[in-house]
Structures are given as structure tokens and as C-alpha cells.
Design goal:
Elements lengths: L23 H15 L2 E3 L1 E3 L2 E3 L4 E4 L10 E4 L3 H19 L3 H16 L3 H12 L3 H28 L8 E8 L4 E5 L5 H13 L3 E5 L5 H13 L7 E4 L3 H9 L4 E7 L2 H13 L9 E5 L4 E5 L5 H13 L9 E7 L3 H13 L19 H16 L3 E5 L3 E2 L5 E2 L2 E5 L5 H4 L6 E7 L4 H11 L2 E2 L1 E5 L3 H10 L6 E4 L16 E2 L10 H5 L3 E8 L15
Parallel strand pairs: 1-5, 7-8, 7-10, 8-9, 10-11, 12-13, 12-20, 13-18, 17-18, 20-21
Antiparallel strand pairs: 2-3, 4-5, 6-23, 14-17, 15-16, 19-22
The protein binds nicotinamide-adenine-dinucleotide (NAD).
């Protein structure tokens, strides 16, 4: 049924629950956590409507309590990727021609299921599987994912409305087709919302998808897949596989019907994908869309006029929430020498109050980092700084893996503006600060712009408008998400479209129209009502 111009509900951001002591939401969440901890999940892959169990099981444990077993998932191989591609291609024709109103309703229903029936289960899954505290889980796995679904329906509807003009005697129109082939969505561990958004944004546009989730996000990805199925997503439209990244890449990037990749993860992996796609370019039926949001080395630049308490709060939250495992996390700060002593003192005092432990204990601000690989890599950076004579650990610096993957929130001060931890992405709770001379703000801007290959997020703190103007100009290409007097994290769908350029990605702004355009292939249709019947133009006559 498509006889009507239908309106969708105007999207508003999902209100964030606060989980204050004795609140109903806190009680409900505690119950969901207890229930999840009592159950052992057996998680299959979802291919063409089938739950596929290979028997090759991988344990899932909370990063903050590695002795506890939450369940297991079934690992697949190249044959499952091929099955997923076949199922997707089989579903394509019917899905691509399903009226928009029907496709949209599925995703709006999924958003509502997540906001109501499954809210606490999803929070519990993210808190236990990815070690996010209640607030971090709420802004990610429920609010942001709900927003992605509702806002993308709204944005796609706006895109569909954009139509060309028509001259006399003709009718022009643009049909926004899906891509010809399948889309591969490869998602990271750190945001349940990104896990949900990458496959659904492409699917919403009529595409069919092979979704490869990170092993360390399978626990919450499984619940989202169940929600999509309950919301009525037809079999084969999104196929969730648990197969190693390189194997998925090998099968998908050499397939003739590969139409695009929607990736979020590290820069190295994305560059490797781009290279294989380039090597296979002659094989494809169509030029594939390559969309990737990757790493960051996000900065805080403090002007001599800044408000110190605002700076310290921006640093504490920006660098240490979710243990610094956000692509947007502040990890290098440039502070002027007139404010350095006060910033140092207040920051160290603030970090010392941060409690670290499990996510079930709501008094913990800091939980564990995701896994052993990450723990070892962060530890190596901290150990290196301990030994380097240009560095001093101002607070933190201890790592302990006896109960979980715990790394203390750590502040390093360096006198070397190009020290490793000022340049490389660490992806952990480590902030490095460098003090510059207060009358050398221009030089500080130049350092921020040139020190790292990344350009994802950054924040400038200043009470001086001329200085802000100067920084905005000098840092035009240093960050895709630029903050003034605020921490560089916490982008909200519909409010701060997210993404960066340079080594941080293709800047296709997740949760905006710009992103959805990448999953559409327009067909222009011109219909002439009274076609000419003689090839000769008037100018051909001599008299
Ligand atoms: P990762 O690159 O290790 O993994 C991301 C995904 O790619 C996972 O599903 C992984 O299994 C898969 N993968 C790994 N190697 C692969 C290969 N050779 N071929 C195909 N797939 C492969 O990243 P992660 O540790 O899950 O996430 C952290 C990274 O993600 C950080 O660099 C962070 O900055 C980035 N990130 C960026 C954004 C953004 O919007 N810019 C958002 C979140 C995370």
C-alpha cells in the first residue's frame, strides 16, 4: 500500500535515564544484570533466517571479571561468509522493492522494542560484555542506537523527497535505488550503537548486508539481532556472522557482487581493506562504496584565558569515561604555563577520586579495558613512559590483570611534544599533557595540527573570542568534530553528526543524511510526454 504521502513521527533524542539511588530504573537494571549473570548464553550466527551453530564455541566473559562465564558463541569460517552472501543476494530483489513505508516501520519498531521491552536486557548485555558502567551503556546501547534508528528513518525520508525540476513537456524524477550487490558491515567492540547502526543504515536504504561483529561485542550484537527479527526484518536482509576479519575480507572483497563496506575500527585494518578492494577492482560489477570511521588522537587545547574547572572536567570525562576506549577520547592535551600548576593539581585530585571495579557496582566510574590484547598494549605505553626521561606519571600507572583487565586512569606529563603517547592512538585510559608558553598560542595550534596523522575530534577551551577564532582557522582540518569549551566526546545523533578525516576516516558522518547517501545509487528518469518525430532541428533550414 503506497497511496499516500506518509509522515513519520518527528524524531527526538531518547531521554537518558540517570539511575539515581532507589530509582525504578536502577532496580530494573540491577535485576537484569543478576538475571544475565545467572544464564549461560549459547549464541548462534544468523544467516538467511537460520540460527547457525558450528559447535566451535568461543567463551564470552566480562572484561572486569574474567573468571565468570556469560556464555559462548559459535565461530564460523569462510563457508559461512559465502552462505551469508548467498542469503543476502537471495533476499535482495524483494527487500529492495518493498515499499519504503514497510521498511521504515521495521526499524521504528526495533527502536521502540529497544526503548521499552529490551531496554534493561540490552544495558545489562553491554555492561557485562563490554564493561561499560550504567551511564556509558545507557548513552550507547539504548539511547544512541534508538536515535540512529529513528533519525535515519527521518533522514532517508527527507532524501527521498529531493526531486529534480521538470521542463515543459516532460516529467523528471530520481529514484534512490539500493546498491547492486551486498554491503559488508564490519563493526568495532566499543559501541553497541555502532554495531547496530552500520548494518541497519545500509539495510534501511534497501540494501542487503553481511554483518561481521567484533568478537568482544557478540554478546550485545546477538540481542540486537533478536530485536531486529522480532521487529519483522525479513530473513537474509542482515546476516550476522562470527568469522575472523581477514577471512571475511578475503571472501567478500573477491566477490563480484561486493557493493560496499561500512566499517568502523582501527586505521590499519581499514587501510588493509581499501588495498584489497583496490587490488580486486576489476572483478566487481559496480564500483564499491568504501566508508570507514577509524582511529583518533583527540586533543584538548587550552588557551591562557580558559576556565580551569571546565578544563579539568573536560579532561577527566573526555579522557577516562569508558576507560578511554572511545575513538573520540581526549588523549593529548596542550596547556599554557600560566594555568599548568592549577590544572595539574586539580586533575590529579579528580583522578584520585575515580573508583575502579566491576560495572555491577554502580559507584565505579572506571571499569576494565576490553581484553588481554588491549591491556598489554596499553601497559606497554605506560611502561615506556615510566622509563622515558621526558615523561613523568602524574597519577595512575598501575595495571592489574588478576580479576579483570584493569588499567588505572593515568596522566603522563611530557616535555617532548612529539613523544609517542602524544602521537599514537592508545585506546585506553591514558592522557598525556604538554605545557607550552602562554604567549605561544599560535605555536600550540601548529603543534596540535601537525603532531598526529589523525583528525577525529578536538576541543579548545578559551574565554577569548579572538583566540577561538584563531584556533578554529588554524585547526580547520585537525578535527571532524570540533568542540568549544566542552569535552571532545559524547556526540549525539541529530545534534553533532560524527566523523573525522585524514587518517580518521572518510568522514561520512554516522547518523546523518551524508552517511545514507553512500548507500544509495540514484537513477534519473526523464519521461517525455509528446516526443519529437523528426530528427531535424530548426537551425538546419537555410531560409
Ligand atoms: P579493530 O580495527 O581491531 O576491529 C574492528 C573490526 O574489524 C572488528 O570486527 C574486527 O574483527 C575487524 N577486523 C580486524 N581485522 C580485520 C581484517 N584484517 N579484515 C577485516 N576485518 C577485520 O578495532 P576495535 O579494536 O574493535 O575498535 C577500536 C578502534 O575503532 C579504534 O581505533 C577506534 O578509534 C576505532 N573507532 C572509531 C570510531 C569512529 O567513529 N571514528 C568509532 C569507534 C571506534
Amino acid at each position: 500500500m503506497s497511496n499516500g504521502h506518509f509522515n513519520f513521527p518527528q524524531p527526538v533524542n531518547e531521554p537518558v535515564l540517570q539511575f539515581a539511588p532507589k530509582s525504578a530504573e536502577k532496580t530494573a537494571l540491577k535485576a537484569a544484570l543478576a538475571a544475565a549473570k545467572k544464564t549461560k548464553s549459547d549464541i548462534p550466527m544468523y544467516i538467511g533466517g537460520q540460527e547457525v551453530r558450528t559447535g566451535k564455541k568461543v567463551d564470552i566473559r566480562p572484561p572486569h571479571e574474567t573468571k565468570h562465564l556469560l556464555g559462548q558463541f559459535h565461530q564460523g569460517d569462510a563457508s559461512h561468509v559465502k552462505m551469508a552472501i548467498d542469503s543476502a543476494l537471495k533476499a535482495h530483489e524483494q527487500w529492495a522493492h518493498t515499499p519504503w513505508i514497510q521498511r521504515a516501520s521495521i526499524f521504528l519498531k526495533a527502536a521502540d522494542l529497544l526503548a521499552t521491552k529490551y531496554r534493561y536486557q540490552m544495558l545489562a548485555a553491554t555492561m557485562l560484555g563490554q564493561s561499560k558502567n550504567a551511564f556509558q551503556a545507557e548513552i550507547d546501547s539504548t539511547c544512541e542506537l534508538i536515535d540512529f534508528l529513528r533519525f535515519n528513518v527521518h533522514f532517508l525520508n527527507e532524501i527521498y523527497k529531493q526531486q529534480p525540476i521538470s521542463g515543459p513537456g516532460m516529467y523528471n524524477r530520481v529514484e534512490y535505488r539500493s546498491l547492486e550487490g551486498f554491503v559488508l558491515a564490519v563493526t568495532p567492540f566499543n559501541f553497541t550503537a555502532i554495531g547496530g547502526n552500520l548494518p541497519t543504515s545500509a539495510a534501511m536504504c534497501g540494501n542487503v548486508v553481511v554483518w561481521k561483529a567484533a568478537n568482544t561485542q557478540v554478546y550485545s550484537a546477538n540481542l540486537f539481532m533478536k530485536i531486529l527479527r522480532e521487529a519483522g526484518l525479513p530473513d537474509g536482509v542482515i546476516n550476522l556472522v562470527f568469522v575472523s576479519g581477514p577471512v571475511v575480507g578475503e571472501v567478500c572483497f573477491s566477490h563480484r557482487d561486493f557493493a560496499g563496506v561500512h566499517f568502523t575500527g582501527s586505521t590499519g585494518v581499514f587501510q588493509g581493506m581499501w588495498k584489497s578492494i583496490g587490488e580486486n577492482i576489476a572483478k566487481y560489477k559496480t564500483y564499491p562504496r568504501i566508508v570507514g570511521e577509524t582511529g583518533g588522537k583527540d586533543f584538548i587545547l587550552v588557551h591562557p584565558s580558559a576556565d580551569v574547572d571546565a578544563v579539568v572536567t573536560g579532561m577527566a570525562r573526555g579522557a577516562f569515561e569508558y576507560q578511554g576506549q572511545k575513538c573520540s577520547a581526549a588523549s593529548r592535551a596542550y596547556i599554557p604555563d600560566n594555568l599548568a600548576a592549577e590544572i595539574r593539581k586539580k586533575l590529579v585530585a579528580a583522578v584520585k577520586t575515580m573508583k575502579m571495579g566491576t560495572t555491577e557496582d554502580f559507584t565505579n566510574f572506571i571499569n576494565a579495558v576490553i581484553d588481554e590484547k588491549s591491556f598489554s598494549s596499553i601497559k606497554k605505553y605506560i611502561d615506556g613512559a615510566k622509563k622515558d626521561k621526558t615523561c613523568k606519571i602524574l597519577v595512575g600507572g598501575k595495571c592489574d590483570s588478576t580479576k579483570g583487565w584493569y588499567v588505572e586512569p593515568t596522566v603522563i606529563e611530557t616535555t617532548n611534544a612529539n613523544y609517542t603517547t602524544m602521537c599514537e592512538e592508545i585506546f585506553g585510559p591514558v592522557l598525556t599533557i604538554y605545557t607550552y608558553k602562554a604567549d605561544e598560542f599560535d605555536h600550540a595550534c601548529a603543534l596540535v595540527d601537525s603532531t598526529s596523522d589523525y583528525a577525529l575530534t578536538g576541543a579548545v577551551f578559551s574565554q577569548d573570542r579572538y583566540a577561538l577564532e584563531k584556533a578554529m582557522k588554524a585547526l580547520t582540518h585537525s578535527a571532524g568534530n570540533f568542540y568549544i569549551n566542552d569535552k571532545p566526546t559524547g556526540a549525539v545523533v541529530g545534534q553533532q553528526p560524527f566523523g573525522g578525516a585524514r587518517a580518521s576516516g572518510t568522514n561520512d558522518k554516522a547518523g546523518s543524511m551524508l552517511n545514507l547517501y553512500r548507500w544509495l545509487s540514484a537513477r534519473t528518469i526523464k519521461e517525455t510526454f509528446n516526443p519529437p518525430t523528426d530528427y531535424r532541428y530548426a537551425f538546419l533550414g537555410e531560409k
